[in-house]
Amino acid sequence: FYSLMFDVRNKKLAFLIKPGVFNNSIPDYSIRVDSKDEDGKMYGIMIYDHKGTNGIPKVILAKEGEMKKSKDGVYLVFNLKNGVTYEEQSNSNGVYNPRQILSRTRFKETEPKFDMKSFDLQKTDQNAFGNSTVMLNLKGIVKKRDSLTKQMDTLNRNTARTLGNNFKQNNLAAGYTKLKVVPKKIDNVMLKSIPNGSRLASIQNASNTVSVITQSLSNGAPRQEDLNGEIIFTSVEYQRKFTLAASCILLFFIGAPLGAIIRKGGMGLPVVIAICFFLIYHIVTTVAEKSAREGSINPVFGMWIAFILLTPLAVFLTYKATVDSALFDVNYYKQFFIKLFKIKQRS
After folding, report:
1. In a domain, 126, yes or no
2. Fewest CB atoms within 10 A around its CB: which of 1, 28, 138, 328?
3. 10 Å Cβ neighbour count for 306?
């Protein structure tokens, strides 16, 4: 990318323009050429200048031309030859005037300049992604997870307080009480126990209370889901710091013994089998990580399940390689089945 930017600003300026296509890379200008040669020389040039023309573009036509940069490197100079410039002078108030002037200027050679600031590399602030969980180290992830956990606890306490204020039993003598009362089903008998004058108001108050509680829970649910997802994600990324290193060691102890055990087929067969084991590891890791992010399984278990499943295989292959086992030797199994078949025939 940086070499491309260097070429644009210093050498290969003509590559910006493709024949037969209007190019808008330079702000306020549209450039089109019919053809160009390998040296960067262009033919059939058309330039629309939309800069400061009140909507009426200035048109420059030229038979040939080439691009170069100014000595200070600030401007892009377009050396044009044998052309004409069309410019329509609009009124200052923007009202169309049928008698406004259209000027046409022919030239043998001209050099319009274009500001190259649009090609400057705009470097993004390094702190823009500094708080991203993926970019944090172990200490930063732990700190962020603790912060998210505190926010979750605060949200849960506020929700419990809001619900508790609406579900406490009101005792006229002792105020609010913590006595556990068996829930009662609202039926006609209970409604009839309320005086006729207060029955409608009681039902309306109960309905309003339920609406307030429902609205409160609906407002807090999305934030709670977001916090829970972020907490799970921090746990996943924390474990990833260890599983990446562990997976390298695990796959080494799978691939290296395969190269020692498989004697036929050169290097190709061990590599193919090792790739198969890697695909198994990758698929299990991907599925388990997705399940962990969705909250279906524990993040720690989800990130380590592939390592746990393939560790016995790595130990087994390493052991077989140390004892010089013929685990993948086809002739060994062929002789084994031949002997087994002969034993059955004798019996």
Report:
1. no
2. 1
3. 23
